[in-house]
Amino acid sequence: MTVPVEPVEANRSWIATTQSDKEEAMHAQPGDWLEVEQPVVGRKPDLGEILEVRSADGSPPYLVRWSESGHTALVYPGADSIVRSADDVAAHQATHGPT
To answer: What Pfam family is a match for this entry (predicted)?
Structure first.
């Protein structure tokens, strides 16, 4: 059974639409983006570019540069995280502006 997850903001409808979207195995490649939802109501998710993937199969950990702060960190994403392809993020930003 899937439980709908409401978008944080109306213009951020590209956020996962069902809980099952988040439960799939996480895989990424350099250039993808990591989105981490926030526990604070009304605060937009953190978004960072994945610079490096430390495993051959694309599973975590990832070296991420956070877009808001520019800080780079090695991240082991949790259940509140979603990997977005570079193409998806670029298309969203072209339509809605930078996040």
So the answer is: DUF1918
| Nearest C-alpha neighbor of 32 from the set 19, 18, 49 | 49
Reduced to 3 states (helix: H, G, I; strand: E, B; else coil), residue 73 is: strand
C-alpha to C-alpha distance for 2 and 12, rounded to whole angstroms: 20
Kindly list the distances between the CA atom of residue 21 and the CA atoms of 30, 70, 83, in Å, as whole numbers in the listed order: 21, 28, 10
Mean of all residue pLDDT scores within the chain: 81
| Domain containing residue 66: CATH number | 2.30.30
pTM here is 0.69
Q: Which domain holds residue 49?
A: 10-96
DSSP E strands, 10-86: 33-36, 46-53, 62-66, 72-75, 81-84
